[in-house]
What does this fold into?
Amino acid sequence: MSGAIANELTCKELVELITDYFEDRLPTDENRRFELHVCTCTGCRVYLAQMRALVRAAGRLAEKDLPAAVRENLLRTFRDWKRGAAEP
Amino acid sequence: MVGLSQPLLGPELERASATASSGSARERLDGGDALLLDALRRGDESAFSRLVDLHHASMVRVARLYVATVAAAEEVAQEAWLGVLQGLERFEGRCTLKAWIFAIVANCAKRRGVSDKRTVPMSSLAEDDAGGASVEPDRFLEDSHARWPGHWSQPPEAWGADRLVSRETLEAIASAMETLPPMQRAVMTMRDVEGLGSEETCQVLGLSEANQRVLLHRARSKVRKALESYMHEGEVSP
Amino acid sequence: MIAYKFLTAGAAAPFTGRPWPLPGPRAPGAWIVAPQGDLARYGVHACRVEDLSYWPDEELWLVELGGTILHQPCQLVAARGRLLQRIAAWNVDSAREYAVACAWRARDVAVEALGRGGLVAEEAALRACMDLVSLQATATTLAGDGPRDATRGLVAYVAGAAMRARQGRYPEASLQCAHLGAALAGGEAGAEHERAWQARWLAHRLELREIAARSGVGTLSL
It folds into this structure.
């Protein structure tokens, strides 16, 4: 007498589908099953939130520091190129 | 109740493309880049300077995917700028400027790697660690469980928003990414750190869409796992 | 067409976080219009009364749908939608009541099944429970730790529902009931039966049809 419901996703299945879900690549009915499951499963809600948070945080790793010496070098490269005399 | 919501960039209503870099609309040359490009083609030094500000650090990160040291990556990135200048006339604007620049960096890095004989091997999915589950199987109830097969036995715990933005946490994420197999690291760097779209990432790295997605999935799963350990114990375990 | 929609805090869409435009004192919120293309995938989702049990969340709203409307299992999908009014009766307190109602529903369903199965002692023990604490304790004891016995399986759902109800965790309490239904009546059909009970509970407790009728907009969804 199993309480498992045939067309419901399990948590173990969901964590493998999560990237396809974010990429909007799941078939439409699978999307619905995914969202239905998340609605009533705190564990999977948290997992989804963790993944989202991770992706956002990774975006913050993109620092744009540029040391002055590097900038100098690059401007030199530019001026040489502009003069048509760039070093190979 | 844990909220599901995060503010989104795109116009989607109910679809969850929550990552910053989805959507092909952003994968063509945009207005701002087009202006910079024109100015650059006219020899405008301030346009070049602006471009350098925008992209150099990213280029070093991309080069670092291919070469063994940060110093080598810095050299590759500087070389790549010359390639950018020399290739200006050829660029057709069918992808973003950033993707085009990254492709040049990748080429420089590979050439350099060949001559240095020290490239990090970036071959293929097949060489990658053979899958494995995204989450340790013992976190779930067994498939034979009478009532909740495959459900969490040990559900994840919510992370505090304040901890997520801390410098230490970002370093933990960076550390975890360093330990990824090379191609997984490359895909996650391109997509999540540098914000490239999926099509462009495939172009720069020479991957099929499906492969790229599998690599992204594995990378994110591994980093999440490491981050979970860190949040729980204060250490990134490999 | 009138329908209902659960949103997360701040009238935000549960899966994208996009905040819905709020209604003013005398006007509905602005329309959200689905982009062209696959309506089933990108349309505005909403609930008929019977769908509510599948999508619980912090805020419940009365919405108006327009344009093409698809009727799918568990939801409506429309070309456009707008918020009409917040259903204030759905709040932390009524949500807790819902969780508690689900726990007692689980008890009642289990009691009936145990009775039919001739398990008189177990039936009596559960029937005698007068509060959630004793319900959880009794059901836990009866369930024991034996996963193989079908009876114990049933009663474990009651323990599960009671525990969640005490914690105010209504989505999971309702899920325990749905799975209990599935266990008793062979899968999906059993689960749907319980989901239908839950939807009726919500409709009655929150006076949803009355609210929809008073809104004076279009036809009621059923």
